[in-house]
Amino acid sequence: MGVSRAWIGCVAFVVLLAIPLLACARSEPAGRSGAGRGEPLRIVATTGMVADLVREIAGERAEVRQLMGAGVDPHMYKPTRGDVAQLTAADAVFYNGLLLEGKMTETFERLRAGGKPVVAITSAISARSLLKEQAEGETSGDGDAGEAETDPHVWMDPALWATAVGPVRDALVALDPASKAAFESRASAYAAKLKELDGYAERVLNGVPERSRVLVTAHDAFGYFGRRYGYQVEGIQGISTESEAGVKDIQRLVDLLVERKITSVFVESSVSDRNVSALIAGARAKGHSVSIGGTLFSDAMGQQGTYEGTYVGMIDHNVTTIARSLGGEAAAPAGGMQGKLQGGKK
Ligand SMILES: [Zn+2]
Predict the structure, then answer these.
(1) What is the reported pTM?
(2) Cys staple from 194: which of 11, 47, 162, 262, with CB 3.0 to 4.6 Å?
(3) Domain range spanning residue 285?
(4) Cα(30) to centroid of ligand 1, in Å?
């Protein structure tokens, strides 16, 4: 809280300062006040995953604010007045896109119309690489029922997420051309780190017996994960938390758990576990015991300042937790890829 107040205060200060500077600012690129004077770029990002990616590539050249903290659901997030002030004052805005931030579309359009760089970091992903989900008839809200929706949860596949590195790097270079070499070298170092993460994930997830490679979670955030690592994934809710899980869905999933003898299902840090509890109760009624295998980070990362509050830590936590809960303990160390996880707590 204190931090964001300070930021808004700082914004107001900069705006006041800018008025007498307008005349001499004409010779500089419009709206790129941070660059070229040695001051860090002021970036606002939506989710923690987007903010983390920009931080990794920008390094000290940018001060990155994220609007959505740990446990916040991006599908339902509406920008506050404070957010709009931050967005308006930023040199550039980075967001996931693919309608993940479905309630911010108008805000992005307004900012763009005002001439601000507003970057959807998933823009370089080809349509062929994206998953579609047919919207269910009972989907609520203003979505067009029956139309295929694009699954926005691309960060769940580190190899796919790596395709966002290029657009972020290029947008930063456009904002601050003098730092091009630094952005490029940080971008390739980070891409290598993502490759290492992908390799670790593949190794530990392959340690789970094939018949147990079924991931049941609160909502459909793990489609790209399933495709990448060969897991059947079942979300109780659809790809947006806006839709409600129907009773039929729960019954179908109970049958699946019983049939495949799956004993672990997962809750998510940013989604209510009400439906998961209903699923466990439904299985119990059929004489099949299921427990919660752990809390996964789906649409939000862990607390800022912790390992799980970084993208690499988030995915490390998820794949290690999934592998260990589904029978892959031998291949997945409790401390994860780098021994940094908090002991595989459940
Ligand atoms: Zn989601």
Answers:
(1) 0.84
(2) 162
(3) 198-325
(4) 36
Cα separations in angstroms, 48 against 4, 94, 197, 313, 337: 15, 11, 18, 12, 21
Tell me how far the alpha carbon of residue 224 lies from the centroid of ligand 1, in angstroms: 12
Per the DSSP assignment, residues forming a β-bridge with 133 are 149
- 101 with 176, same domain: the answer is yes
The per-residue pLDDT for range 36-57, each reduced to its tens digit, is 567 999 999 999 999 999 999 9
Domain count, the chain: 2
Instruction: State the distance from the centre of ligand 1 to the C-alpha of 271, rounded, in angstroms.
Output: 9
Say whether both 98 and 68 belong to one domain: yes
Domain shared by 241 and 267, yes or no? yes
Cα(41) to centroid(ligand 1), Å: 29
- CA atoms within a 13 Å half-sphere pointing along the CA-CB vector of 232: 12
Confidence of residue 85 (pLDDT cuts 50, 70, 90): very high
Q: Phi first, then psi: what are they for 155, rounded to 5°?
A: -65, -15
User: 21 Cβ partners below 8 Å, 6+ apart?
Assistant: none
The answer to whether residues 51 and 94 belong to one domain is yes
Distance 234 CA to ligand 1 centre (A): 13
Q: Which one has a higher pLDDT value, 138 or 65?
A: 65
Residues 201-230, mean pLDDT to the nearest whole number: 95
Same-domain pairing of 222 and 319? yes
H helices then E strands: how many in the chain? Answer: 11, 10
User: Which is higher by pLDDT, 316 or 4?
Assistant: 316
Domain boundary among 166, 196, 226: 196
Give residue 243 CA to ligand 1 midpoint distance, Å. Answer: 11
Q: Rounded to the nearest whole angstrom, what is the distance from the C-alpha of residue 201 to the centroid of ligand 1?
A: 21
User: pLDDT digits over 257-268, tens only?
Assistant: 999 999 999 999
Residue pair 148/133 in contact by the 8 Å Cβ criterion: yes
Of the given ranges (93-97, 203-207, 215-219, 310-314), which has the lowest mean pLDDT? 215-219
Query: What integer pLDDT is reported at residue 343 of this predicted model?
Result: 61
How many angstroms separate the alpha carbon of residue 76 from the centre of ligand 1? 10
The CATH code of the domain that includes 262 is 3.40.50.1980
* CA 68 to centroid of ligand 1, rounded, Å: 13
Beta-carbon count within 10 A of 343 CB:
8
The Å distance, Cα 60 to ligand 1 centre, comes to 30
Q: Given this model, what pLDDT does residue 238 score?
A: 78
Work out the average pLDDT over 313-335. Answer: 96
Distance 95 CA to ligand 1 centre (A): 14
